[in-house]
Amino acid sequence: MASIEITNARKSYGAVDVLHGINLDIRDGEFIVLVGPSGCGKSTLLRMIAGLEEITSGDISIGGTVVNDLQPKDRDIAMVFQSYALYPHMSVAENMSYALNLRKTAKEKVASAIENVAGILGLNALLERRPKALSGGQRQRVAMGRAIVRQPQAFLFDEPLSNLDARLREQMRTEIRKLHRRLGATSVYVTHDQIEAMTMADRIVAMYDGIVQQVGSPLEIYDRPANIFVASFIGSPAMNFLEGTYQTDATDTNATNAAITLEDGTIIPVLSSAQAMSGQKITLGARPEHIDIVEDGSSPSVTATVELIEPMGLSTLVHVTLAGKPVKIFTLARPDLAIGGTVQIAFNMDKTHIFDRESELRLPPASEPVSAQKA
Fold first, then answer.
1. How far is residue 39's CA from residue 331's CA, in Å, rounded to a whole number?
2. Segment holding 22, helix H or strand E
3. What is the pairing mode between strands 203-208 and 77-80?
4. Domain map of the chain by residue range?
C-alpha cells in the first residue's frame, strides 16, 4: 500500500473552475472519506487520483511517485464504482480474474487469489453465477473482490453503496470497514451520505464548492466544525441555527456574563466567553441533542412553541419554534407535550457553537485549547 499526496490540485473545464487548489496528505493504510453535496468536486478529485480526469495544475503523488501523466492502468490503483461495472456475460470468477488475466498472471496464482478473496467476501458459492443472478449487495461484493485481487497500492470508492436499500447499506458499511482493517489498504471513499462518512472514516474531508472546508476525525468535525457549512452538513438530525447578537457585560472584565440576544429579543445566557466582541452579529448553532426540555425550572430556559412531535421508539424528535425559527430537539424521554402549546427549553452552552455571521467561521470559546481550535 502507499500514501497519496495531493498538492495544490486544480481542475477547470474551460473558464469554469471546479477544484480550487486542493492540498491533502493521505497516509499509508488510511481510510479517507470525501464528503459533501452533489457538485462539490469530490468525485472529480477521486477521478483525478485515478487518472480518469486530467489535472489542470498541481501534483498528485501515489507512493512517492508523481502520477500526473500516467495512464490509469499504470497508477496501480483499483476503483469500485457506483454502478458495479461488471461484465454481464462473465461469471463472478471471470469478472474477478479479468485484470489478472490481462496481466498474463499464471493460472495457479489467479485461482489462488480468487479463492482467497472469495472466502473473505463470502462469494465462494457464487463464483459460477453471472451478475444478473446476483442481488445488489452480492454484485457490490464482486466489484470489491475484483479490486482486491489486484493487490493495488490504493483503493478508490465512488459512492459504491448509493444503489442499495437502507438496510443493505448499513450491512455493507460494516463489511467494507472490516475489510479495510483486515487488508490495511489505503482507501479513498466518496459519498454524499454523512452517516457513511461518520461511521467509516479515519478522517473526513468535508468539501463544498470545490474547496476543502475541513479535515479531521469524525468526532473532531462533529464536535468542532470549522464553519456553518460543516456544522450543517455533518450530523443527523441537522444542527439548529439561530441568528442574534453577542453581548457582554461591560463591567465584567472576564466576559463570563455574556449572552446572545436573538432577533425577537429572546436572551440566551452564555456561561463561558467566546472569541467574539460585544455587539457582534453571530449565528448560534446547537445540535438537537444539546437542547433540553426543562420541566422543573432548575436551569435557565426560554419559551418555545411546539409544532410537531415525532416518536421514534428509542427517542423522540420534538419540533418547536423559537424566535420565529424552527428548532429540533432530540430526547430519549417521551415528553407529554401538546401541539401548539409552549415548552421551556435550555441550551447546553458547553456544547453549542457560535459562528461569525459574516464569515460563517466558528468562534471557539476562550477555554478551548489552541490545538482543538485548529482541528
1. 34
2. strand 16-26
3. unpaired
4. 4-232, 237-373
pLDDT digits (tens, 9 = 90+) for 160-216: 888 778 888 888 888 888 888 888 889 999 999 999 999 999 999 999 999 999 999
Which residue stretches of 69-165 are H helix? 92-102, 107-121, 136-148
Question: How far, in Å, CA of 33 to CA of 47, rounded?
Answer: 14
Helix (H), strand (E) counts: the chain: 9, 20
Q: Cα separation of 375 and 371, whole Å?
A: 7
Q: What is the pLDDT of residues 283-339, one digit of tens each?
A: 999 999 999 999 876 677 899 999 999 999 999 999 999 999 999 999 999 988 999
In 3-state terms, the chain is what percent helix, strand and coil (to 5)? Answer: 25, 35, 40
Query: For 237-373, CATH number?
Result: 2.40.50.140
C-alpha cell at 147: 479490486
Please check whether residue 31 is in contact with residue 180, taking contact to mean a CB–CB distance below 8 angstroms.
yes
**Residue type at position 27:** R
For the stretch 209-231, what's the b/e string if a residue is b when 16 or more beta carbons lie within 10 angstroms of its beta carbon? ebebbbbbebebbbebbbbbbbb
Q: How far apart are CA 286 and CA 169, in angstroms?
A: 29
Out of 1.10.760.10, 3.40.50.300, 3.40.50.2300, 1.10.357.10, select the CATH number for domain 4-232.
3.40.50.300
**Pair type for strands 203-208 and 31-35:** parallel
From 262, 312, 253, select the one nearest 288 (Cα to Cα): 312
Reference 364, options 353, 350, 348, 351; nearest CA is 353
The answer to whether the bond into 237 is cis (omega within 30° of 0) is: yes
Reported pTM? 0.88
